[in-house]
Design a protein that fits this description.
The chain is mainly alpha-helical. The protein has a single domain, classed as Glycosyltransferase (Alpha/alpha barrel). Helix content is 50%, strand content 4%. It has helices at residues 3-24, 28-41, 85-102, 110-128, 142-146, 171-187, 193-212, 217-220, 222-225, 236-250, 254-262, 277-291, 297-310, 335-355, 368-382, 407-410, 427-431, 461-464, 468-484; strands at residues 83-84, 135-139, 161-164, 320-321, 327-328, 359-361, 364-366. The strands form 3 sheets. Strands 1-2-3 form a 3-stranded antiparallel β-sheet. Strands 4-5 form a two-stranded antiparallel ribbon. Strands 6-7 form a two-stranded antiparallel sheet. The protein is globular, with a radius of gyration of 22 Å. It starts with a helix and ends with a helix. It is an enzyme of class 3 (hydrolase). Residues 1-22 form the signal peptide. Its EC number is 3.2.1.4.
Length: 487
């Protein structure tokens, strides 16, 4: 072998070893812990005295007062100071599913995961307590909020509340609220039976409201929910999703019959706060796989069609992958689709392994190990095994985004600078190239583009803004990988 070839071969071996080491030493349990800390940073309302993030304080303590209702609590969706009901309910559903599916693998973090669920479900109980007359679905005017850059603790822009009613319906947001409450009821079934019963009763009311008064909240409240969280997929997916969760929570077969009457969109290759078809299919397919319930057999076909649409090398793959191996679906906040897809693959892998089953994507055989490996590669990419060597989870590793598009993280803490940061004065911090003064531990940002490029730029919100619905499904997948990596 010539010297040049020897050196080249040696370098390839070194690179291979380095990549293997980086992959094999990822701390999934540490990432799980950090991912749950992020939900503390997103809390609105009266914060507990003991918190992992000392730079946050209570906020939104008068929310709902304009209508004489208590709407304190809940989560800010992303880097702003608005509480959007649709993504918050989806976040709560996915946190609940993470606990239901992988809670036994969370170890000491199970308590924190339940706390994260309860912060969302407590708020959703308040928002739904006036059903069937009204479901409160948003606090804050997004246009006015987005024209300011200020801490949530200083928020003094009008915080109007918005609701859906029988005459101005919102089957999508009501359906997701029902799903969240039903899923959360399962989380607390044994640890707090009284609370669990409250949740399921509210879930039934929300579902009845969603089904009886059909319509999209994007029509009823278009001026304040669009383009931020328009329900582009319509509301049939939320009705299906809610029915699936109510069946899981109650074992009432009428919800299965309802789900079958709705049908499903088997051509969807995205699972998100907007589109629930793949999630509902996987949830119902599990019942067929594990319990041989023939009533839901059609949903296994839908679930596996979704898997085939996202698996690399599948003859029916309809998504793209970046050169570095990241599933790539859309320009804005792409990692939300990565974390949801990884979660569904993890859930399905677990079910297939337990039942010793496989399936086919055309001529490609798919077994549980393949699904787990694809999910693992996506999570590994997020945590730093990528061409830039950057963790897209803030606070994980030594190389992570420093200029996150997030008001509270980018502004001086109220505990350090007690003077108010006004609507306009906050923009001096927005436009600076300095790193954020407060580390938004555990937040997963929108992520890189289709060529694996990432701008660590506060102004590039499509890449640098985190969101609760990016993190929520990742909680479950991290627990799954943390447990399985120990064997």
């Amino acid at each position: 072998m010539g010297l040049e070839k020897f050196i080249c071969s040696l370098m390839l071996i070194i690179i291979g070893v380095a990549h293997t080491t980086a992959t094999s030493t990822l701390d999934y349990r540490g990432a799980l812990s950090k991912s749950l800390v992020f939900f503390e940073a997103q809390r609105s309302g009266k914060l507990p005295h003991v918190a992992s993030l000392s730079w946050r304080s209570s906020s939104g303590l008068n929310d709902g007062s304009t209508e004489n209702v208590d709407l304190t609590g809940g989560y800010y969706d992303a880097g702003d100071n608005v509480k959007f009901g649709l993504p918050m309910a989806f976040t709560t559903t996915m946190l609940s599913w993470s606990v239901i599916e992988f809670g036994k693998k969370m170890g000491s973090e199970l308590h924190n995961a339940r706390d994260a669920v309860k912060w969302g479900s407590d708020y959703l109980l308040k928002a739904s307590c006036h059903l069937p007359d009204a479901l409160y679905v948003q606090v804050g005017d997004p246009d006015k909020d987005h024209s300011c850059w200020m801490r949530s603790e200083d928020e003094n822009t009008p915080h109007p509340v918005y609701k859906v009613t029988p005459s101005n319906p919102g089957s999508d947001v009501a359906g997701e609220t029902a799903a969240a409450l039903a899923a959360a009821s399962i989380v607390f079934r044994h640890s707090d039976p009284h609370y669990s019963k409250q949740l399921i009763n509210a879930a039934v009311k929300a579902f009845t409201f969603a089904d009886k008064y059909r319509g999209s909240y994007s029509d009823s409240l278009s001026s304040v929910v669009c383009p931020f969280y328009c329900s582009y997929s319509g509301y049939q997916d939320e009705l299906l999703w809610a029915a699936a969760w109510l069946h899981k929570a109650t074992k009432n077969s009428s919800y299965i019959n309802y789900a079958k009457s709705l049908g499903c969109n088997p051509d969807s290759d995205t699972f998100s706060w907007d589109n629930k078809f793949p999630g509902a299919s996987v949830l119902l397919a599990k019942e067929y796989i594990l319990q041989k319930n023939q009533d839901v057999s059609e949903f296994r076909d839908h679930a596996e069609k979704f898997m085939c649409s996202i698996l690399p090398n599948s003859p029916s793959m309809s998504v793209k992958y970046t050169p570095g191996g990241l599933l790539y679906k859309m320009t804005g906040s792409n990692l939300q689709y990565v974390t949801t897809a990884s979660f569904l693959m993890s859930v399905y892998a677990k079910s297939l392994r337990f039942s010793k089953q496989t399936f086919q994507c055309g001529g490609m055989a798919v077994n549980p190990s393949l699904l787990r490996e694809v999910a693992k590669k996506q999570v590994d990419y997020i945590l730093g095994v990528n061409p830039k060597g950057m963790s897209y989870m803030v606070g994980y590793s030594n190389n992570f985004p420093q200029r996150v598009h997030h008001r509270d993280s980018s502004l001086p803490s109220v505990n350090i600078f007690s003077g108010p940061v006004t609507c306009d004065s906050g923009f001096q911090y927005y436009h600076t190239s300095n790193p954020n003064p407060n580390v938004l531990t555990g937040a997963v940002v929108g992520g890189p583009d289709e060529n694996d490029n990432f701008a660590d730029d506060r102004d590039n919100f499509a890449q640098s803004e985190p969101a609760t619905y990016i993190n929520a499904p990742l909680v479950g997948t991290l627990a799954y990988l943390a447990a399985s990596s120990q064997h």
